[in-house]
From TrEMBL:
NAD(+) binds at residues 278-290. Binds 1 Mg(2+) or Mn(2+) ion per subunit. Keywords: Amino-acid biosynthesis, Branched-chain amino acid biosynthesis, Cytoplasm, Leucine biosynthesis, Magnesium, Manganese, Metal-binding, NAD, Oxidoreductase. Substrate binds at residues 93, 103, 131, 220. Its cofactor is Mn(2+); Mg(2+). One of its GO terms (molecular function) is 3-isopropylmalate dehydrogenase activity. Homodimer. Residues 5-345 form the Isopropylmalate dehydrogenase-like domain. InterPro entries: IsoCit/isopropylmalate_DH_CS, IsoPropMal-DH-like_dom, Isopropylmalate_DH. This is 3-isopropylmalate dehydrogenase. Pathway: Amino-acid biosynthesis; L-leucine biosynthesis; L-leucine from 3-methyl-2-oxobutanoate: step 3/4. It comes from the Bacteria.
Amino acid sequence: MSTPLIAILAGDGIGPEVTAEARRVLDALGLDLTFEEALVGGAAYRASGHPLPAATLDLARRADAILFGAVGDPACDTLERALRPEQAILGLRKELRTFANLRPARIFEGLEDASTLKPEVARAIDLVIVRELNGDVYFGEKGRRTNAAGLREGHDLMRYDEDEVRRIARVGFETAAKRRGKLCSVDKANVLETSQLWRDVVIEVAADYPTVELTHMYVDNAAMQLVRNPGAFDTIVTGNLFGDILSDQASMCVGSIGMLPSASMDAGGKGLYEPIHGSAPDIAGQGKANPCAAILSAAMMLRHSLGQAAAADRVEAAVAAALRAGVRTPDLGGDASTRAMGDAVLAAL
Ligand code: NAD
Ligand code: IPM
Ligand code: MN
């Protein structure tokens, strides 16, 4: 590979703060990488009138991988939907066809007391949520109208076709096969026709993966089991909306939303890497944000898009060492700043 190009799309709120720490870690590795930055989200809207300007999308397309911060700005919440910051990440996921979102949740040594679960329950967590990212109620037809009774009405269509389910199911099985061989498909097939199709197709795909043990669980039960006995989960495969909700829940089980990275992959190995959290307007600009999720997202980028597995291992080990040494941001019960947390990871590298 010629020198890989990394697009840095830091975005809004704490996005730039945590992405800066991830960038420092990448720089310290001394790899042959080039970086190009562009505005995205509310920052881009302010500068150019659109949350995903053509130049930003063009950079994302040209890049070998994208390191994304977060988008979202309360001041933009009343804009027409197409101009809101969130449309930038939704647009990138759709345009880049990054349909497979991997959200690993594992407990780092010493963080049992940061979890809201009992330490012995939290200690057992090592799971990955494989979330479908290009379909579901997110991208179905949506609208508002005044109905026959004269009432305001809104709707968002939940839909998947069998090919969309099949390709994410395959990622689920492949992921489980490389881990502990257990795949739990989460749906709501007792109520939703979309989910019944999902379940039917997942069962069909299972025929190609005889070594993986497949189970099915309704999403309400899955939410309960995630706090009752999360150690029982290995790989979860689910739709866009359920995956969004369950991953925020899983993050707190392992200590904080500031700990969960993600990789959003297309069919060819190109990826967009981002923490699962948002722009956190309540703490933005205060140096309080936990940069671990962003740093761990950079590690996932090294592993999944850049063929740098050893460097990824190094970064993950450095995060573990920094936490083991007791350096913690406020979300983990400490008082380290975003920069100090980054410094500790760099020192451990
Ligand atoms: P959020 O994830 O931004 O924040 C939820 C809570 O978690 C807040 O109290 C916040 O302070 C805390 N938190 C989040 N990340 C943290 C970190 N790294 N360290 C310490 N604490 C952290 O979710 P929200 O408040 O529902 O949304 C805020 C904005 O972000 C909204 O505009 C939303 O649409 C957007 N959002 C964007 C993304 C994304 O860019 N992928 C993801 C989620 C939410
Ligand atoms: C996430 C976020 C996004 C989602 C929003 C900002 C569109 O919550 O990445 O988890 O719902 O996918
Ligand atoms: Mn989310």
